[in-house]
């Protein structure tokens, strides 16, 4: 196929995880049929591989441990995730966060000063997204002279084994609206996040492909960074464009 001639120049792949390699769930999730074998074949082909995920319900170490238990041959170094990127940003700017994140993600912020917060960091907090917790984040932001809201992604929803779930983007938008501010997104689809993933992959954007199930965060974000991108028909994929 002449239209696929560009594929010969590809040296590396960025893969989304949830909805591409496995469907998450309360029981830890289940791998998507053929995905572990696909990862093995990609590595055997000589292509470079980096997992580019907005996972914020676990540390990278625990996330990789779960993936390996499902049969995926991956390491922590092969995972680009929002929490480490957020920690670098917090240190660079001297920010002290109030964390509204999943309990299992908190260890990623162990070395960050959290006294007297001057910003709010929002992740996929799952059951921690209560009215009380969201209102606390709102109260802190609204009292700041220059409120800073950092969101570890902006997805609308994702798929678990028992159905679709609201993602961090829905709660981010609520705080943006209430405080009349715009959040800084650390994670997909932010250009800086994709640039970090490419740097870890060691491949320029024109020689890499992003593969994901989210047309906005995965495909759109990668294209804005100068990459080609493919959307899989698993995970949150829907035929109706208005629901993506």
**Fraction in helix:** 25-40%
The shape, in one word, is globular
* CA radius of gyration: 18 Å
Q: Helix/strand-derived class?
A: alpha/beta
Q: For the largest sheet, list the strands in their spatial order.
A: 5-4-1-12-13
Main β-sheet description: 5 strands, parallel
- Mean pLDDT across every amino acid position: 93
Order of helices and strands: EEEHEHEHEEHEEEHEHEHE
Helices, by number, come to: 7
Proportion of β residues?
A: 15-25%
Low-confidence stretches: none
Span between termini: 29 Å
Tell how many strands the DSSP assignment holds: 13
Report on the architecture of this protein.
This protein has 244 residues and is an alpha/beta fold. It has helices at 35-44, 60-69, 82-93, 131-143, 168-179, 191-201, 215-224; strands at 12-15, 22-23, 30-31, 48-52, 79-80, 97-100, 119-122, 149-151, 157-160, 163-166, 184-185, 208-212, 228-231. The chain has a five-stranded parallel β-sheet, sandwiched between helices. α4 packs across α5 (168-179). The model has no long low-confidence stretch (mean pLDDT 93).
Q: What is this structure, in a nutshell?
A:
By secondary structure, the protein is an alpha/beta fold. The chain has seven helices and 13 strands. It has helices at residues 35-44, 60-69, 82-93, 131-143, 168-179, 191-201, 215-224, and strands spanning 12-15, 22-23, 30-31, 48-52, 79-80, 97-100, 119-122, 149-151, 157-160, 163-166, 184-185, 208-212, 228-231.
